[in-house]
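Cross-posted from the bioinformatics board.
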Amino acid sequence: MTIKMEETKNPLRNIVKSEFPYKGRIIDVRVDTVKFPSGSEKIREVVLHRPAVAMLAEDADGGVYLVKQYRHAIDAEIYEIPAGLVEDGEDPACTAARELQEEIGLRPGRLEKIAEMYSSPGFTTEKITLYYAAELAASKLPEDEDEYIKVRRFLPDELDVLVRSGAIRDGKTLAAYYWLAARRGGR
Amino acid sequence: MTIKMEETKNPLRNIVKSEFPYKGRIIDVRVDTVKFPSGSEKIREVVLHRPAVAMLAEDADGGVYLVKQYRHAIDAEIYEIPAGLVEDGEDPACTAARELQEEIGLRPGRLEKIAEMYSSPGFTTEKITLYYAAELAASKLPEDEDEYIKVRRFLPDELDVLVRSGAIRDGKTLAAYYWLAARRGGR
């Protein structure tokens, strides 16, 4: 796993010990002992995670594509915008185009970067590049094995109802939805 | 650490083995071996994390309060809306009011739940309850030790510039910003 970190010389980054208690498939855990300016020492737990992409795909009629999938970590089936992990050396925009074809069978003619966001900077390196995808054309790539996902298209009003009901519980998906709502001129 | 999970009987949740390779301060790691309907077995890594709250605090003049703090995991100092972890047995709304007093020295007269969002449901249980806080009154509670945070108030135009420049890189903060932009009737 390659994680590119921004190097700082922050006075709060006085690491006196660093250990890797777990190295796994999609995450590694690093535990740093940090000495603060006050003299006290504390540990900081870091979950190393690959960068990811997520795509708000909107068609010419305002339809937005969500995937419903079972998420083991939270033991629930939830709606999310299409997303995926960036492979080593892959351009995030290429990941975005590839994942859209794998997950919803559409290739974006236009891909606009909305933002780069850390999903939870208090403990993990995971960074998601969020895209707006448009000018969608049919183009299906095979899905990963054991991905059991259902794709659904929502019109603006349907999506508003879904969000207001609390059915959308994924951070990146809510961020994308509010972004779109702001762009459409408010809800 | 108490994590409340929604129980499902999802056919994709056939856990044949479960291990805890790391139990730490703010996270535990659980590794499950899952047998899929296809017959294949895969591992699923889960980072157990306490629930959190985050607050978009807006004063009567449209000023929004952000805290700038060094985040060890990403080795960078970033702007975020005030946030904190929910203590065992604590009502998230109480956490929100407490953290606002600790971090920005203001107590909300009104607290409106915007959404509950999983920060990254692919691998972690962390759920953030996002609030809109208003009718702010001066009320300072002491900060946690070794919290080196700076508070800054941004007017709507200043915040727009900050987001457009890419300086806001925290997921919950961007979600809150877009939510506010949509409510204000678009950017």
